[in-house]
Structures are given as structure tokens and as C-alpha cells.
Amino acid sequence: MTLHSRIFPVLLIRDQGLVKTRRFGEDRYVGDPMNAVKIFNEKQVDELAIFDIDATVQGREPDFAQLEKIAVESRMPLCYGGGVTTAEQAARLVSIGYEKVSISAAALDRPELIAEMAERIGRQSVVVTLDVRKEGLLGNHNLYTHNATKKQSAKAIDFAARAEELGAGEIVINSIDRDGMTDGYDLKFAKAVRDTVNVPLSFVGGAGSIADMAKLIDAVGTVGAGAGSMFVFKGPYRAVLISYDRPDNAREMT
What we know:
Layout: E1 6-14, E2 17-22, E3 25-31, H1 33-42, E4 48-52, H2 55-58, H3 64-73, E5 78-81, H4 87-95, E6 100-103, H5 105-109, H6 112-121, E7 126-135, E8 140-145, E9 150-155, H7 156-166, E10 170-175, H8 187-194, E11 201-204, H9 210-220, E12 224-227, H10 229-232, E13 233-234, E14 239-240, H11 248-251
Parallel strand pairs: 1-4, 1-12, 4-5, 5-6, 6-7, 7-10, 10-11, 11-12
Antiparallel strand pairs: 1-2, 2-3, 7-8, 8-9, 13-14
Helix pairs in contact: 4-6, 8-9
């Protein structure tokens, strides 16, 4: 099967509404999730990633009632992350219509969960999302969880490789320091991750245009290019306007 690069919007849920953040802070309300899903249906989006950014921090499970309503409305593949701590929860999400289930803090706390989920829902449905911040004079890429409030001891690239070994079907690298800044992806780090793991990779954080996504695809090859701000804001004053450039632009570059 030939894989193509994917362009996908990333939606952040807080208190059942959509927000957009900058560097995992400065959250701004941008609308209702159901309205966004309806718009992206019309735009024929490749895939939609939805993250409840408070579920893990608050120690609660996914809001299955809201997520089922979203899945019923959606006509595109869905990935969900936030508050998933068991293979049973992952299976329930798949049963209501989510093709992929993402884990982050839970994977770092108990890596065995990756293998448990792979056995329960299939490796292709298991996503491990790593929130990474570039820090220090050496530019080390450190791992964080809980909305970038808890620094982890594991190294980002090392854990990406371990996640693949345990059964992750996809690795998502989410850049904390580039989140909402629309100044491009961290291409050097993207290439370093690509050289380390073989499973499908996606990158989120920094995209401000299709050109930024083209640079990522040119640098890394077949990849998922995720973005938030460029799909929900318009113009220098960041007016809320949900949009989507057709993914054919990305496929032509693969």
C-alpha cells in the first residue's frame, strides 16, 4: 500500500469548546466543536485530530458522550487523545467511530499500555503523541506532559523508538515552543526523528501555510502535517475563520 502525506487540522477541546493556544498557553476560545466538524466535512479533510487538553491534568477519562456526537457527525477519519489510560477506553473510542487513539502521559507513565492497546485495537490505531520543547544552549528536545507543566526524564527520540518497539502505529511530535507561532516546523528535529523510527510520523506545531507543510514533506518524506492556527485564524489580527487547503497540494509534493 502506498502511503501519502496527510494534511490534518488539530482541534483542542477545553470545557467542551474549542480553543487555540500559543506555546501551550494563552488559550483563546474559537468556537463549537460540532460546527468545526461540519465545516471540515465539507472541506473533505484527510483526517481530524481532536485533543481534550484538560482530561489528563484533571485526572478524568474522555468525555465519551461528546466524542460520540462528534463521531456521528464526522465524515472523515478521526484521531482522539486526552485522558486515555486503559486499553478498554481505547476500544470504546474505536467502537464509537475513532480510527486512532492517542496517548501521551499515560504512555510515559506506563509504557506497557502501548502494547496492551496494540493487542486490543490493532497497532494501526495506536498513536503516541510526544510533546517536545527545545531548550538550553545545546537545543535539547525535552519531553513534557500535563499541558507542558511536567518535565519527563525520557529523551524524546529514545522514547519514540521505544514506543515503536512496543507497538505504536504512529508517532506524533508536538512542538511546545512552536505551538501557535506559525513560523514553520522544526525541520532539523523532524529529520532526526525520521532517521530513528520507521512507523508513520506526524508533526504538529509551527505551520502557518501550505509552504511550511511543503518544506516538512520535502525534508522528511511521507509524513502527517498537522496544524491548528492556520486552519482557524485568518489574517494578521487572527480573526476566527475555519478553513482548509485541499490536501491535493501535499500529495503532489510526495
